[in-house]
Each structure stands twice: as C-alpha cells, then as structure tokens.
Amino acid sequence: METDYIFLTIGQLLTASVLMAVNIGLSLILKLGLAKQWSIASLRMVGQLLLVGFLLDWVFALNNPFWILGVALFMATIASITAVGRTRKRFSAIYLNSFISILGAGFFVMFFALSGVLQIDPWYSPQYLFPLLGMVLGNTLNGISLALERFMDSLSVRRKEVEMLLSLGATSWEAAHDLIRDALRTSMIPTLNSMLVMGIVSLPGMMTGQILAGVSPGEAVRYQIMMIFVIASGAALGATLVVILAFRALFNSRHQLLLKHLRTVS
Fold it and tell me: Where are its TM segments located (predicted)?
C-alpha cells in the first residue's frame, strides 16, 4: 500500500488547537469551572510532548544503553508518582510501593515483548522501547491508581467488618481477601471493557498511528493485538503487586489492621 506521509506544520497544529476552545467554551457557558484546568492541561501537554520529542531525538542519536535505560527509569518514576497522586488515602511507603510495582510489571512485560516476541536486537532499541513503554506505563499507572484507591477506601469503610473477622481468628489474608479481590477487579474492568469493543467501537491509538504513517491495516492490527496483550498483562501485574504491598503495609505479622498508618490528603 503506497501512501504519502503528511508532515504537520506549526500552522496546522495551531489550527488543531482551536478545537480546545470548544471544551473551554462549554466550561464557561455551563459554569463547569474547568476552563482554567483545560488551558493549563493543554499548555502543559504541549510543553511536555515537545520536550520529550527533543529528548528522544537526542537519546536516539546517542544510542547509548545507559542513557536509554536511564530515560526509561525516569518515565517509570514519573508514572509511579502520578499513580499515587490520584489517590486520596496514603501511607508512608506508598510511593516506593507504586515505583516497585510499575518498575517490576512494566519492565517484565516490555522485556518479554521486545526480546521474546519482537526479538529486537538489542532489546532496548529506543525506536521500539520508548513508544511501547509509554503505552505500558500509562495503562499500568491507571490500574495501580484504581486498585490502590479502591483497596484503601474499602479498608476504611469496612474497617469494623475486617476487625471482626480478625477477632474471630481469621488471618489478615482471610479478612482482607474480599477487599483485595474487589480492588483488583476494579483495576481490570477498564482494560476488559476496552478489549471487548476494540475494532468494533474504537480503533486503538497505536493501530491508527501506524495506518496514518503508511503501514498496511493488516500489519497494524497484528502489532495492536500484541500490544493489547502486553498492556493488559502489565496493568494486571502492576495492580496485583501494589495491592499486595499495600496489604503488607497495613497489616502486621500479628494479624492486626494498622489503619492508623493511613492519612487522607485533599
């Protein structure tokens, strides 16, 4: 399939930005109070993407594994901080737990995809690592955020139920099992819903981008299927890791609930 790639000019980007006026206008007309947030988010998004573009151009040119993995580690760090930033209840080790979960889940599925599936040599090739890692981290942080929020809210709301089970001789795991299960189910539902309608209701971003770049739809579909498996696995592993770590932080070895370690942030 022969296709001419369309390079976007600054003028075309400015034209596209006019569409944000719709969001800002609706917020002002309906008094949603989101006009300022939309403006800040738009400017921040543009600045961040431009900065990332320059940074990746530089890293691509260097082709140094230490710089490549260093940038990947930085991306994972920001993702872990963002995941915690969406939760209202926190404990002292929550940022470390989020980082361990995102790093462990994200890099495991990425290494499997790049080395085992795509068989890239070397597996850390920036052309493949950064675009795929970005998608994995974005979905994994969402799963972690949803799981943490649900688990800690459930512990607070159902505190008496958990403590009653513990007083009757249940272990920490037995008392918290339903809460852990519900938290993990909550974190996985968005991915499941997306997979169920993919190709019928929505065309995923990676597939759309490849088609716009001139890749045949059949080839783009195969890449997208692979990435959905990778993304779903990363989100599930990350959510599971972070909930287990949160469970270990909020229960002690004597099977006591340590809810005093939780604090609520505004």
Answer: 6-30, 42-60, 66-84, 96-116, 128-148, 195-213, 225-251
